[in-house]
Write a structure and sequence with these properties.
Elements lengths: L5 H26 L6 H11 L5 H21 L3 H20 L12 H16 L17 H18 L3
Length: about 160
């Protein structure tokens, strides 16, 4: 294996930034840290969006964001981690931000789209050499990894949205 290059460092920075921010977002839901409201209050918000029981869906979302974010940051099971981030972003767009247009200044989908596309792009390109996946024969990027990430993210969203 060649030593890591600039592209590997760039992929690591992208994975760490998006992965750790998503893990923190999940921690807000699960543990009420980083200014989050915790599971009970988040569950009420989910129930208001039509997810019943709200606390169960808040737990699923929190665990998906937290676990998916950590795995994405580490470059561990990268296509599955990307699928987790894509799935929660599709849900956010359908249930919360989609009605507000594109731009985040109006509560729109802008940021959700960015996260989903970054996750999908990393699935396609692979996590780089500075990733745990490099120790295993999977998650090195390519058409199949991108298809897995997009397909599983979409299926998970369809299930939770009752589509």
């Amino acid at each position: 294996m060649a030593s890591p290059g600039a592209a590997d460092c760039g992929l690591l920075l992208i994975r760490l930034t998006f992965g750790l921010l998503m893990a923190g977002h999940g921690a807000q839901k699960l543990f009420g840290i980083f200014g989050g409201t915790g599971l009970a209050a988040t569950g009420k918000g989910f129930a208001a969006l039509g997810f019943h029981p709200g606390e169960v869906f808040a737990l699923i979302a929190g665990l998906t964001e937290f676990g998916g974010g950590l795995c994405f940051a580490l470059g561990l099971l990268t296509p599955l981690a990307a699928a987790a981030l894509i799935g929660v972003m599709i849900n956010a767009m359908v249930t919360v931000t989609g009605a507000h247009g594109l731009w985040a200044t109006h509560g729109g989908v802008e940021y959700n789209v960015v996260i989903a596309i970054v996750a999908l792009s990393i699935a396609f390109t692979g996590p780089g050499q500075l990733a745990v996946d490099r120790l295993f024969p999977w998650g090195r990027g390519g058409w199949a990894d991108g298809a897995v990430a997009l397909g599983l993210g979409g299926i998970a969203s369809a299930i939770t949205l009752n589509l």
